[in-house]
Amino acid sequence: MNTTITKDLKEHFFELILTSSASEEAWLKEIRTEALKSFKSLDFPTTRNEEWKYTRITPLLNKPFKKGEYSHVQTSNYKIADLDAIIIPVVNGIINLKEVILPKGIELLNIHIAKEKHPSYIEQYFSKITDNKNIFTALNTVSATPYILKTDNNAIIEKPIHFVFVSKGNEVFVQPRFLIIAGKQSEFNVITSFHSDCKSAFLNVVVEVVAEENSKLEWTKIQSENNESIHVSSEDIYMSTNSTFTLHTYTFNGAMVRNNVNVAIDAANCEANLNGLYLLDGKQHVDNHTKIAHMKAHSNSNEIYKGIMNDASTGVFNGKIHVYQNAQKTNAFQSNKNILLSDNATINTKPELEIYADDVKCSHGSTTGQFDEDAVFYLRARGMGEQSARALLVEAFANDVTESLKSEALKKHILLLIHKKLSKEL
Amino acid sequence: MTKSEQSKGKGKMLEIRNLHAKVGGTPILRGINLTIHPGEIHAIMGPNGSGKSTLASVLAGRENYEVTEGEVLFNGKNLLALSPEDRAREGIFLAFQYPIEIPGVSNINFLRTALNEIRQYKGQEPIEAKEFLALVKEKQKLVEFDAKLANRSVNEGFSGGEKKRNEIFQMAMLEPKFAILDETDSGLDIDALRIVANGVNKLKNDKNAFLVITHYQRLLDYIVPDFVHVLYNGRIVKSGTKELALELEEKGYDWVKAEVDGVSA
Ligand SMILES: Nc1ncnc2c1ncn2[C@@H]1O[C@H](COP(=O)(O)OP(=O)(O)O)[C@@H](O)[C@H]1O
Ligand SMILES: [Mg+2]
To answer: A380 in contact with B at a CB cutoff of 8 Å?
Structure first.
């Protein structure tokens, strides 16, 4: 890797993030300054970096990206059919909070108001769950506009909150930043969908999640940006006693996507579910890095990632499970299965288990195979066209990921995207 | 009737002329001639490895079978030029010797998709949900196929006999013009055999035809064939009526082999 490119790149991004610093409160400035120090001391990763071994991202960042502004988008274009959701547009990482109307029990605040209303939450969690030793996270922390989504204790929010992320502009650099707090005994669903209305974009997303006692949060993330765009995201989840957290990650498009999901289970009786599906073609590259830390006894985690790769696409799955010495009676299940539809497609899959407790049940498995051509023939011999036979088999393959979606409308939407993707309409 | 008389006659459904096919470079079918008319049941018997399943696969359009010579006409159309799905849509059905399991694909849902694609091919509207359910019910009864099995994933965890019955159930649902049953009887006990045979007999009419591949005469006690052919070494070496099946049952294949090998030696 050419180090001078890395230097130039850092300068470029350094300038980008400096222009954004407004007059902010001292406490926030301090966090930003620390993050900036971290950013300066770090380098954009090369494939020599173990965590980025198969994902050569840095050369792709070398474009004249500019910061984007908020502008109006037609949300109806992004509505999920038959789903009664509250849609909140996030344009180039910015929300027009004046337009947001939420039901009782849930609020969406900017960081300044949040600090006034909920000082202890912000002090305890903002920029504390995530890791600013990661250069992308540090970059985000320095200049992003943070939003806080918080449910009251005992709030049950019926309608899903659907954040529609749109990148607008030419070569736009977007840094969404969220802190989601699931109040005690609260239950809600969040959808984040990512879209391009631009030539190309570099999205650098950071979301921190706090699952308080007895809370239930289900989050569905749908990535379908254009194939010029780069998406790096860091989702860091902190779980308290009896909480349930589910993340569904669906990746359909993007030139390069890197998802970092880090779950810290710091209590008993928690359930963390990570479901992932990636459908790739062309030269797409998608890298799912997950890490589940079982820090206390008596919690469960389930992780299923499935991939279908066509053409010259590449996939990476790295699933780390870390069971601390005192985390007895942990159940951790992990599986990664892949189908390669072309000889030129590749997948690098690696489970990483670090288990320091002795009374635990942990299992992991990964498989990579071709399409079952006998099954394709069987269906065709009954009159199904080749395309629909393959789509049905992909649907069946993806079934244990999609069936975990509780909303029928959302499931239908995902199946539709799968069909579109397979027939190259997406 | 001689071959030339048959080919002049009207209403031929399937006409196989001098069919040669290779699998993995090895010639397996080595000149098959067979004509089938609507309303007929033909049985093909023959020792293991003689090419019976290969013939079925070539007719259904499975890839990796290379036709090197000959032609197949189905209702006057060049069958070999059609994709497997178009063959099915034209009315060909193959009950597989070894039906595979397809986890995650619901038997009923896939049949509905298949049925609708067949209807679309014929320029018909998709079947109404209610009508479809009624059809499922009727055909389940006809072939005594457990409703629980019909709703499960295709053949997943089915016993050998259940898989074969599912093939017959699917055949009943799709109502093909020409059905090939590849050893549907093997692995069935006598009750299941009777059920399968009953299904075929009920579906049989003067517009459709069946090609029943079997090892055993016992199936032919229930499905009475109009013609019996012996396939050996990739050729039909003997044809006759149902009495031929009885003779084979009694004497085995050795005399046929001896005749053929004697002639060609
Ligand atoms: N996929 C295949 N690859 C190679 N040889 C095959 C394949 N399928 C069948 N054969 C060979 O072709 C011959 C005929 O097989 P098959 O048609 O299955 O016979 P039958 O159904 O009459 O028992 C056998 O010698 C078998 O080994
Ligand atoms: Mg056979």
So the answer is: yes
Task: Give the residue from A20, A17, A68 showing the smallest Cα distance to A40.
Answer: A17
CB contacts < 8 Å between A and B, how many? Answer: 77
Q: Assess whether A234 and A381 both reside in one domain.
A: no
Number of domains in chain A: 2
The DSSP code for A156 is B
Q: What is the pLDDT of residue A10?
A: 84
- Per residue in A152-181, pLDDT tens? 999 999 999 999 999 999 899 999 999 999
Q: What is the model's pTM? A: 0.85
The answer for residues whose C-beta is within 8 angstroms of residue A9's C-beta and 6 or more apart is: A44, A58, A61, A62
Residue whose structure tokens are 């589910």: A246
Mean of pLDDT values over A14-42: 86
C-alpha span between B225 and B204 (Å, rounded)? 12
Say whether the ipTM exceeds 0.85: yes
User: Hey, of B83, B89, B92, B102, which one would you mutate to test binding to chain A, going by the most A CBs within 10 A of its CB?
Assistant: B102
Closest CA to A340 of A401, A424, A279: A279
Question: What CATH number is given to the structural domain containing B30?
Answer: 3.40.50.300
Closest CA to A322 of A348, A351, A349: A351
According to DSSP, residue A371 is labeled -
Indicate if A104 and A249 belong to the same structural domain. Answer: yes
| Residue A256, domain member (yes or no) | yes
Give the separation between CA B25 and CA B66, rounded to whole angstroms.
8
Domain boundary among A237, A267, A297: A267
Per-residue model confidence as pLDDT tens digits over B161-215: 899 999 999 999 999 999 999 999 888 888 888 988 998 999 999 999 999 999 8
d(CA B119, CA B173): 13
Whether ligand 1 lies within 6 angstroms of the CB of B104 is answered as: no
pLDDT for the residue A113: 97
Alpha carbon separation from A229 to A198, A258, A287 (Å, rounded): 9, 11, 14
Listed residues A267, A283, A302: the one ending a domain: A267
Residues of A in contact with B174 (CB under 8 A): 382-383
Tell me how far apart the alpha carbons of residues A124 and A142 are, in angstroms, rounded to a whole number.
18
The answer to whether residue B18 is domain-embedded is yes
Rounded to 10°, the helix A386-402/A373-380 angle is 120
- Read off φ and ψ for residue A324, nearest 5 degrees: -70, 160
Question: Residue A345 and residue A353: Cα distance in Å, rounded?
Answer: 26
A387-419, pLDDT tens digit by residue? 889 989 998 999 889 999 999 999 999 999 998
